[in-house]
Amino acid sequence: MIDFLATRRSNLAKSMAEPGPDADTLKAILTTGTRVPDHRKLAPFRLQVFQGDARARFGDALAAAYRADYPDHPEERWQFEAHRFLRAPTVIAVISAPKDCVRGTPIWEQQLSAGSVCLMLCLAAQAHGFGAQWLTEWYAYDSRIQAELGMCDGEQVAGFVYIGTPIQAASPRARPDPDEIITHVNDAADIG
C-alpha cells in the first residue's frame, strides 16, 4: 500500500478509454470513495454518476452554456465542450452539500470531507486497475451547470472524477520538496 500511495499519479481524462468499471466494481469504488473523515457523520456530500448517453446529454448542456458566453468562438470549441464528459467512460460529480449541524461542525470541515471523497474515489479506481483524474474546470463554477446538476444554495462542486482504462501511462510531474513545506515542531522554541 505504501508503494501505491508513494507512486500514485493521476491519469489524464483525455488518455482514458473503454471499458470503465462494471456495475459491481463501480459500486465498490463508490462505497470505498465515501469512506472519508466525516465529523459527526453528516455525509456532507452527494455524488452523481454519468455513464453511457448521459455523458453526451450533459455535454450538450456544457456546450450550450459555453456557446452562450462565447458565441464568436469557432464550432470546434463548442464541440470540444460538448465532448468533455466523453473523455472517460465514467464521470462522477462530487458535490459538497454541507449540512446544518446543531453541534456546530464547521462548513469548512464538511467541504474538506467532500474533497476527500474526490481523492478517495481516485485511489479506489486506481486500486481496481483503472485510471482516474479529479478535475473541476470552468463548468464546476458555472451557475447554469450547477442548476443542471440540481444543486441547492450552499452546495459547490468539489470535483468531477473521471474513471476509465488508461491508454497511456500517467506522466510524472514535479512534486513539492518536503523540506520546503514541512516544519517539525519539537519544542516551544520551534513555534512561530
Key phrases:
single chain; 5 strands; 7 helices; five-stranded antiparallel beta sheet; 38% helix; 192 residues; alpha+beta
What does this 3D model show about the protein?
This protein is α+β, with helices and mostly antiparallel strands. Helices cover 38% and strands 17% of the residues. Strands 1, 2, 3, 4 and 5 form a five-stranded antiparallel sheet that branches. Helix 2 packs antiparallel against helix 5 and helix 3 runs antiparallel to helix 4. The mean pLDDT is 94.
Number of helices: 7
Residue share in β-strands:
15-25%
- Rg over CA atoms, rounded to whole Å, is 19 Å
Could you name the ranges where pLDDT drops below 50 across 5 or more consecutive residues? none
Q: Quick one: how many beta strands?
A: 5
Largest sheet: 5 strands, antiparallel
Helix/strand order, N-terminal first: HEHEHHEHEHEH
> How much helical structure, as a percent, in the residues?
25-40%
Average residue-wise pLDDT: 94
Please report the distance between the alpha carbons of the first and last residues: 35 Å
Given helix and strand content, the structural type is: alpha+beta
What would you call the shape? Answer: globular
